[in-house]
Design a protein that fits this description.
- By secondary structure, the protein is an alpha/beta fold.
- It is built from 8 helices and 5 strands; from the N terminus they run βαβααβααβααβα.
- The protein has a single domain, classed as Rossmann fold.
- A 5-stranded parallel beta sheet has the order 2-3-1-4-5, with helices on both faces.
- The termini are far apart.
- Keywords: ATP-binding, Kinase, Nucleotide biosynthesis, Nucleotide-binding, Transferase.
Length: 231
């Protein structure tokens, strides 16, 4: 009697959650807190970052954040970010999602749209073209935009780096960071189905609850059952 092997059910695709925000908004802290909570719920999770996250992209990260690429202008910076992202997506993000892993990423395409597009005045057509090449149809299931007043964010960034020199973007002036915050708020407003604007001007635990609520409402919200009237 012939035996027919049972086919395995397809592996559910993981969820892709990105975190965005200005300098000192608390992205790294909140990503780790969310990862801990998801892992506790038995969901396989990895954390990663941009620029960086893969071997090739980490090399480009050093070049970008050191400020060495600044002299070549925002268009060149955009191309370098795109090169790093292409390696990151192909080597880390897509394989993890295909295996059912949740990917929590510190910055993604919105950062390029804001830093190089809105503030660097790079042609939006060029940015969109680079996105088509580097990420294709990949899109975050949810983008958490952490919002803090500029003064608070800059104070946090200063405390975090201590005596170290500011990186390429931390070293920009207050006006730059005000425009940065406005640009992120516009993104959240323009794409509410994907983005959640979270008030991050609070202690980490409070912000973590706000992040969890945003994730629950965007990814797990279900219609509440109707109450039945009692005779």
């Amino acid at each position: 009697m012939s035996m027919v092997a049972k086919s395995k059910s397809p592996q559910p695709r993981g969820r892709f959650i990105t975190f965005e925000g200005g300098e000192g908004s608390g992205k790294s802290t909140q990503i780790q807190l969310l990862a801990d909570r998801l892992n506790a719920a038995k969901l396989r999770t990895i954390t990663t970052r941009e620029p960086g996250g893969s071997a090739g992209a980490e090399i480009v990260r050093h070049l970008l954040l050191s400020g060495m690429a600044k002299a070549f202008g925002p268009e060149t910076e955009s191309l370098l970010f795109a090169a790093a992202r292409d390696d990151h997506v192909s080597q880390v993000i897509e394989p993890a999602l295909a295996q059912g892993t949740w990917v929590l990423c510190d910055r993604f395409t919105d950062s390029t749209r804001v830093y190089q597009g809105e503030l660097g005045k790079v042609d939006p057509k060029l940015i969109r073209a680079m996105e088509r090449v580097t990420i294709g149809d990949l899109k975050p299931d949810l983008t958490i935009i952490l919002d803090v007043p500029v003064a608070v964010g800059m104070e946090r960034a200063l405390k975090r780096r201590g005596s170290a020199a500011p990186d390429r973007f931390e070293g920009e002036g207050v006006s730059f960071h005000e425009k940065l915050r406005d640009a992120y708020r516009k993104i959240a407003e323009s794409d509410p189905q994907r983005c959640a604007l979270v008030d991050a001007n609070a202690d980490p635990k409070t912000v973590a609850e706000r992040v969890w609520t945003a994730l629950r409402d965007h990814l797990f919200a279900v219609a509440a059952p109707r109450e039945t009237s009692q005779a």
